[in-house]
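re: ur msg from earlier - yeah i can do the adenosine-5'-diphosphate complex, just paste it... oh wait u already did. ok heres what im feeding in:
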Amino acid sequence: MPSSELTGHPDEVDSARAGSVRLDHVTHRYGRGGEAFTAVGPVDLTVPAGQFLVLVGASGCGKSTLLRLIAGFERPTDGSVRVSGAEPRPGGTAGVVFQTPRLFPWRTVRGNVDLALRYAGVPRAQWPGRRAELLARVGLEGTEERRVWEISGGQQQRVAIARALAAENPLLLLDEPFAALDALTRERLQQDVRRVTDRTGRTTVFVTHSADEAVFLGSRIVVLTRSPGTVALDLPITLPRGDIDAEELRGSREFAELRARVSHAVKAAAAA
Ligand code: ADP
Ligand code: MG
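and the outut:
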């Protein structure tokens, strides 16, 4: 593997490739004039196509702001954001999963996934096949006719992930999607997201404040300082990917060392 795939150094990365992300001197402020509050920046960050980047940092350091900038929901106050070499368009550039699944609770699982397929412009004749494939990918076979309000929080987050995958965008953005779930469900979903993104080769930017989650998921971890968030640590993660035994990986010494290192960096960055 060339070093660029680990480090994402801007000079070594083809930032026009589908799914690549490039932030140049990005700063974001909320409010104007004397009331202005700088939430992030300056941040320089290049994510090569196919990388699984995890952004870690204390609450309020600007993680969600960064993700919204990459999704195109916000424009940076200064600097530039490029996805696949172009300015991101809200809804058009990336599949996004939020902490609380944004679904239509009175609709069925099928209805929710079909809406995403409709927005993605998938021809109606292809919906049944694509829907079955998406639901299988997130472990929701057989739930098509259930209403969203009657399935569990973990299942709802799976529907949200299926919806985010529906558009087949080369970029997937997830903002603390498992924070509200119980530990067992969270570990299952972490495994599924790792597997899905490994298989599909999508670029993924995942936000969390958990060092354990970051080390399990990421092929690269960026720790942010406290607000205004800047890059405090940029760490390639070389743990095995693909078909792995999650228990074995979590129990390994390498995993424990990385987790301790990231956890320490998050605390140091938050206190600095
Ligand atoms: P994180 O996701 O890391 O917890 P956020 O990106 O949500 O951090 O927020 C970073 C900082 O910007 C926080 O201090 C937050 O209060 C502030 N902030 C976030 N969104 C807004 C907004 N729409 N208007 C004003 N301030 C905001
Ligand atoms: Mg947040």
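cool cool. Residues 1-6 have pLDDT under 50 and may be disordered. ping me if u need the other ligands too
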